[in-house]
Description:
CATH superfamily of the largest domain: endopeptidase domain like (from Nostoc punctiforme)
Order of helices and strands: EEEEEEEHEEEEEEHEEHHEEEEEEE
Structural class: mainly beta
Number of domains: 2
Number of strands: 22
Number of helices: 4
CATH topology of the largest domain: endopeptidase fold (from Nostoc punctiforme)
Strand content: over 45%
CATH class of the largest domain: Alpha Beta
Helix content: 10-25%
Strand order of the largest sheet: 17-18-19-20-21-22
Radius of gyration: 18 Å
CATH architecture of the largest domain: Alpha-Beta Complex
Shape: globular
Amino acid sequence: MEGLAYCKVAVSPVRASASDRAEMVTQLLFGEVLEILGNDQQWLHIRTYLDNYEGWIDGKQVRSLSQKEVNRWLDSNTIESSLTRELETPWGKQIITRGAFVPLEQAGEFNIGRDEFRISGEPSFTPESIPELALSYENTAYLWGGKTPFGIDCSGLMQSVHRRFGINLPRDASQQVSLGMDVPYGEHAAGDLVFFQNKEGRVHHVGLLLDESTVIHASGWVRMDDFMDKGIVRRTDNELSHHFYAIKRL
């Protein structure tokens, strides 16, 4: 089984293998487009359309699209910024969450392929900057592979807040670090991405600068901590928690 599709549910877990017990590596949010690479009974082997991330999802959580329908949808959508909103779908009412793909008008009737939807009300929150949107995730629990205000990881947070402003980042911190312009320490500013390394020197964490000495990142929960030349110093105990690697400006 091959083709294109979109996520029809609010949040669909993408797993490392074809099993509900397998590790969740990322999530699909409502309206997100994917490519189907194959299948194993009910499970679909997929690649996300915007960031080329592979995994397995339950085939009941997606709906098929043609390439023409995908192009039309991608040309006419934006990213939901409200915490939640109600959606009327062909299969009943459902809730979507921040990060979902919604029409540019952000209200009224719209189509994804042949499916008709109605989104109620206006967005309750319209951020004017990436840092402002990042702050709206404050105190969200850390969740490996998560991309929502109900659980998110460090790179998922960076990907989600940038996507709302038309910047498509790869899924993982180790991929995100390859983008943008290198910024020397001391010349950094609000909005820059800051990357951190493990003992082996591999990039494993990312945060967003709110000012020259404050970073917002997901570690245990989405939190603000102090940033300095050595890395992140937790405000809760003044301990160095992450070792500095690089600063990037997109």
